[in-house]
Predict the structure.
Amino acid sequence: MSVTSGGSQLELKEAGRASRRGQLRTLRLRWIDNSRHFPQMLIGPVLVFFVIWNIVPLFWMLGMSFYNYSLITGSPPRFIGFDNYADLFDNISVWLALSKTFVFVLGAVGIETVLGILLGFLFWDSTTMPGRRLALTLLFAPMILTPAATGTFFRLIYEPTFGVANHLVRHLLGAEINFLGDKAWAMISVLLVDVWMWTPFMILISLAALGSVPQAELEAAEVDGLPWHKRVTHVILPHAKFIVMLGILLRTIDSFKVMDLILQLTRGGPGNTTEVVGLMLFRKAFEGFTMGWSSALAVIALLIAIAFTSIYLFILNLSREEKGVA
Amino acid sequence: MRRQGRRAIYHLILWMVAILFFLPILWIVLAAFKTKDDLLAVPVKWAFHPTLENFASLIRRHDFFSSLENSFLISASAVVVAIAVSFLAAYCFSRFRPSSTNFIMFLLLSIRMVPASASVVPIFLMYTALGWKDTYWGVMLFYAMFSIPFSVWILKGFIDGISPRYDETGLVNGGSRLHVMFRVVLPQVRPGLIAAFIFNLIFVWNEFLFNFIIGGKNTTMIPVSLVTGSLAQGGVDWEFVASLASVYLLPPVVAIYFFQKYLLVGMTFGTVRGEV
């Protein structure tokens, strides 16, 4: 008797819980699942993040770029219209920084692309390689470490007295090179580090691009005895070009952004031989504390980045149309 | 026989290329096991007696465990928040295709393409004005935002790859929309979730500039202590830098060993799919 009553009480509790759960479910269905605004609810959280961390700062920056505002003087921001932009345009050091950025982007992306594609071809046939996973981990390790850290590694390696780079140079050439302190060498040394970091990325891209070439077409070319340069232009390139282009564009965008690597290696020096736009922005904003002027420069950098992004998406859409996938 | 020999030489060359790229990293790891005298020796010492002394003194430093903890805590929580939010949005973009889809996807991608030193200026102004600097929530939520564009892109790509018929079947059979989302679609995009999770973790783990500017002593993560350590006035404490760098690089390297098949999708915003 007592057992059954206990049982029924338990059942009652269960039923109560179930009905409460049912009510919750009905509420949820009414207010979330079957709501007319279900799609809006789904993007809502992302939009909140987007507005707080992007739209607000963006307008803050746009507004600030019309002010003369320095954190050092402590005087309140003063509206000066387009003066910051005019100053940017007249300022020789801005153009110098832009041209250095251009040299850096061109040099880095160029070398990385050529080396990456060559090594990509080398690694193409590596599927049966013993310990492939470990070897690829070692190969791809440079690109997943932060430039702030790899810059540190290379400060040790480039160190003029006890660094290993100079040790080798002394033995091989009998001369000494102050890699990061010499005006003629600083940019080359920085470029070398970037090439070391990002060539693996272009290898990865080339491997993906080569992987997208259908096996049947390669075999047909083999059977037809097509010479290798025709194989590249007629068989491989039509399939591989989009992925390679996306890779090159990503690298262009990334190397345009370069900042922490150079901050860590040379701080823009010696003189300002390695002061690219990203680094200039950082130093003007957080060492010079000229917030208005830096905001104006940041707006320009933003516009350049948006232009790059549009090109990237344009190519991405082209490749999708060609392959017929959404 | 000759064929096999040529194969062996080919594989040996590949291994040598891989090791060549790893050498600079190996050098800093080796430096972590050297005594100060060996590390600063002129000419460079190739043979040395390994010592764990540098790691022992690293552990004794007061700021080591706090930056390690910050790094783990902030990157993990930011990425979890980002992926939860991004999955909802990615599902919406993929299935309901609101008219603003293309525009928002473009904006999200541009956020990640903007030079960090440009976007750090307004974020700095905003954080100082609102007093969010050096607060756990301020830094964590910033990193969540930092991870959202990539996560939305990658997850939308994966959800697009799942036929909407699954959704229709689920709805016709009486499943609610949330049921379809979480019980039907979610399990099928697991590779996308893993890729988004791992790579966002690596990106936040690696992030330096924002942590340097909007962080402070309560929210310092490893890359910032690495840089401030290596920029110390006077002589740089190379034993500290080398041993901290060795600790720092372990998780990302281990991660790409185990998740190598997501490397491509992870490094290209999910726009290029496939394995290498």
In short: The mean pLDDT of chain A is 85. The beta strands of chain A are 67-68, 78-79. Residues 1-35 of chain A form one domain. The radius of gyration of chain A is 29 Å.
